[in-house]
Design goal:
This protein is an all-alpha fold. Among the domains are: 64 residues, no CATH class; 70 residues, no CATH class. The protein contains 18 helices and no strands. Helix 16 runs parallel beside helix 18. The longest helix is centred in the first third of the chain and has 15 residues.
């Protein structure tokens, strides 16, 4: 084992990693002075508790709880139930607040919703996994992100979402997906955006218009690969 003095020459995270790996090698707990180093690093304190102690490392919890990622993992895999003291930190991170609600609370987490609601991605996942129907209060945030507005329309509304279309249409990829999978046909209002992206102009032509799209050709021509595919499909000879 590296003496404590030698460990002072490397960074805190590297020290904790080194000690955790050493504990794995010998498959037992380290001396208390080494555990003092591990316990202040949330990641390696959690891993040490999981893989070496195989239970709670109480001395480390005040450090672990302040990191939403590792606090969630600790609650899920070590405590295996709600960890009330850590919730004030977990709920500040939309991602881990969602996972905590889904896998530990197993339902709505009202105290965290005011944070989750403002993040389009995690507001969508909270709706999908927990609310399981439209979350009206979150829609003003979700609708402004083309990807998550599209996912919300497809998986929650299960149809067109008129209020979000002005945002979805401005992203060529999601506009194409929305036309193909939600509208299931031409989306005139979005075409001015789709046509300017050679790849998605090609796919929109191929799967939706299914004939030459003259207005888009000046843009598709700018990309040798997609123009080649377009010419091949429509048997255009230049």
């Amino acid at each position: 084992m590296e003496p404590l003095d030698g460990l002072l020459n490397i960074g805190e995270n590297e020290r904790a990693e080194y000690l955790y790996c050493k504990a794995l090698d010998i498959n037992k707990r380290l001396d208390p002075e080494y555990e003092e180093i591990i316990k202040i690093d949330p990641e390696y304190a959690y891993l040490y508790a999981r893989d070496i102690i195989k239970g709670r490392l109480f001395e480390a919890e005040k450090y672990i709880m302040k990191d939403p990622h590792w606090a969630y993992q600790y609650a899920l895999n070590i405590i295996k139930s709600k960890w009330k003291k850590a919730e004030e930190y977990i709920k500040k991170d939309p991602e881990y607040a969602c996972w905590y609600a889904k896998n530990i609370i197993k339902g709505k987490w009202l105290e965290a919703e005011k944070i989750i609601i403002k993040d389009p991605e995690w507001a969508y996942w909270y709706t999908y996994n927990i609310i399981k129907k439209r979350w009206k209060k979150a829609e003003k945030y979700i609708k402004k992100d083309p990807e998550w507005a599209y996912q919300y329309a497809v998986n929650i509304i299960k149809g067109r979402w008129k209020e979000a279309e002005e945002f979805i249409m401005k992203d060529p990829y999601w506009a194409y997906q929305y036309a193909k999978n939600t509208i299931k046909g031409k989306w005139k209002e979005a075409e001015e955006y789709i046509m300017k992206d050679p790849e998605w102009a090609y796919w929109y032509t191929y799967n939706i218009i299914k004939k030459r799209w003259k207005e888009a050709e000046e843009y598709i021509k700018k990309h040798i690969f997609w123009w080649g595919k377009y010419c091949e499909y429509f048997k255009i000879r230049e």
